[in-house]
Amino acid sequence: MNERQRIYLTVLFHADQDIEEHRHRMAATGRWDSSPARDWRRIAFNNAYGPVASALRARGVYDSGAGSTLAALRERGLITTETAPGILRDPGLGMAHQSRPCRRPRRHRHPTRAK
């Protein structure tokens, strides 16, 4: 396994542990969900602003080679992957979205007249 693959596997492991910790906290507060681990252990990778992508970006390995890296981990039996047909979605933003830079409204200064 190369360094890039080790980074991906480490980030995915920490994401999995975060999900598990969240489930334990929810159960401790009485909000137990009995869904099987095969459902709740899924880690979304297609969200460019999600925790996995952010962690990979911080380590300098979030780029167009992500698919190949995930495939290499899958081929080694270290992870399982699944894809769904259709449009990739960003759960926080909806189906297709276009981002525009946020601009502060321009304030017009009106000349004041001297009296």
Q: Give the SSE string.
A: HHHH
Share in β-strands: under 5%
The residue-averaged pLDDT reads 76
Structural class: mainly alpha
As for the number of domains, it is 1
How many H/I helices? 4
Task: Kindly state the percentage of residues in helix.
Answer: 40-55%
Low-confidence stretches: 92-115
Basic shape: elongated
Radius of gyration: 22 Å
Distance between the termini: 79 Å
> Mind summarizing the main beta sheet?
none
Quantity of strands, as a count? 0
In short:
By secondary structure, the chain is mostly helical. The protein has helices at 3-28, 37-40, 51-58, 66-75. The radius of gyration is 22 Å and the shape is elongated.
Break the fold down into its secondary structure elements and pairings:
Elements (H helix, E strand, L loop, with lengths): L2 H26 L8 H4 L10 H8 L7 H10 L40
Question: Could you characterize what this model shows?
Answer:
This protein has one domain (1-107). It has helices spanning 3-28, 37-40, 51-58, 66-75. It is mainly alpha-helical and 115 residues long. Residues 84-115 are annotated as: Disordered. Residues 100-115 have a biased composition (Basic residues).
Q: What labels describe this entry?
A:
single chain, 4 helices, mainly alpha, disordered C terminus, 115 residues
